[in-house]
Amino acid sequence: MKFGIATVSISGNLEEKIEAIAAAGFDGIEIFEQDFIADARPPGDVGARIRDAGLEVMLFQPFRDFEGLPGKLRQKAFDRAERKFDLMQELGCDLVLVCSSVHPEALGGIDRAAADFAELGDRAAARGLRVGYEALAWGKHVDDHRDAWEIVRRADHPNVGLILDSFHTLGRGIDPDTIRRIPGDRIFFVQLADAPLIDMDPLYWSRHFRNMPGEGDLDVPAFMRAVMATGYSGPVSLEIFNDQFRGGLPKSIARDGHRALVHLMDQVRRAEPDLSVDLPEIPPPVPPNGLAFIEFAARGQEHDALADHLRTLGFSKVARHVGKALTLWQQGEIRIVLNAETQGHAGNAFAGSGTSICDIGLSVSSSGDTAARARALGAEGFEQSRQEGELEIPGIRGLGGSVLHFLDDRLGDVWNVEFERAEEPGQGAGLTRIDHIAETMSYDEMLSWSLFYSALFGMQKQPMVDVIDPDGLIRSQALSTADRNLRITLNGAETHRTLAGEFLASRFGATVQHVAFATADIFGTVAALDDLGFASLPMSSNYYSDLAARFDIEPERLARMQASNILYDRVGEAEFYQVYSRPFAGAMFFEIVERRGGYDGYGAPNAPFRIAAQKRLGRPKGMPRR
Ligand code: MG
Ligand code: MG
Questions:
Q1: Distance from Cα 164 to the centre of ligand 1, integer Å
Q2: Which among 5, 20, 132, 319 could bridge 254 via Cys, Cβ 3.0 to 4.6 Å?
């Protein structure tokens, strides 16, 4: 199966688009006419350039307002078509997309349209070309692929076929299973796009809000399963009109597109095992069991300050690396590595971003399979020179240049193989595991990373939440595995004045801004933290007055919460308790949470007050601004 993408899907000039599309591994390209017209080269040269880049010119699009026109207008439409056929022959492209007419004078009638297409088919056949007909969701007389198919069927011409576009079918709520009745060899081309569900004019929705399959809310896998069930064996191609992508980097948009298609076809293959999908098989997405470790790059004073901070949270330095400046801090199932190396990835991370999380370890059932799936999805592998006796743990580059390592049972032994015992574990503060990590990125990158996590690990997205920072808006997207063993929140900052934006501006690329630890007894934990000298983020008394007004909380309990700066949220009977640390190393922080009664969120209603409290506090003393 061949993968294509329409030039309109990505930013840049035609040359930049061709380079990005070829680099991402696509087989072909749909030429959007405007991209061609904007180019200065003659059509023959453009076609040759595309083929030189290793790409096929799969489709020329769009040819508009063709069918159903009366009298002279009809004649003119055929004349226009002949001129486009000339151009296609020079480009070396044999298929044109004709979209259903929106011409004010176009007449309806399936037979009238079929007769027009039969004649166009003759003209195309004389030149060895083919015509594909697509129903636009806002077409004047034809806005449904079932009607477009009926016109193609009645045109009854071997050079006239149907073009399907997932947006036009799913966006109008048409059951994709109606596609299963169409003979696969009568479908000439398939275009794919997803979109978030927004109630608006379909034309505007389509031109501005389409996104990659898996990034939106449409059931593109169901659409594609129906297409494959027809026996269709032609290309699948992305046609994405998206304002954000128009401003994005061509190479990363193209890479996301290819990743989305690999993921989509993998879903189709798994859902319809009887269908033959002519693509290499890849390992299935296996949700991680949780976070095996997080690793900070930290040196000098900052390292020592972070180590002290961990002690006040109840962590013990249980082991040190046998050959490197690495220490392992543990409490419950939580492992935190402090890496003070001056060389290698951690050394570079510290030099570039200061104290930061440079590496995340995920517990997986098979390190090898997870890494193989990541590579098939276009992730960049990560390797670093190893010393003798060090295990080879597969890794990839993750968000913002950070590294993700995959540990399975065998590699989980790394703590015994590469580390030696340091101190006896202390009492701790009742922290059991990592509840979630929160990664910060620019808003433009959020779709890209949620696609990455959902494609690689089968993580599910929760609805996006807007968080109000005193200085701007932050979009928050939570992803989790079905069993909730791994939870990640992605926070997209739109301005540099937000806390998230400031964090981002101080780093090279995006990375983890906070780590939340779980406790089963928040009041026991805060009592232990008091003894350990932990300094929590002070919350205002206004916050607690508001809590008292919003929720029915016993005064004694509320007083204990206020005394320990515990934040609270409730949904139905489910309760959430949170305590934040003060910011460290710029704008990073820790969080401690207790979930009761199946609370599944992240305390979003509290976020504006938490952010305001952090901003009131300003930068911690002794921590340089970066
Ligand atoms: Mg289309
Ligand atoms: Mg959080």
A1: 7
A2: 20
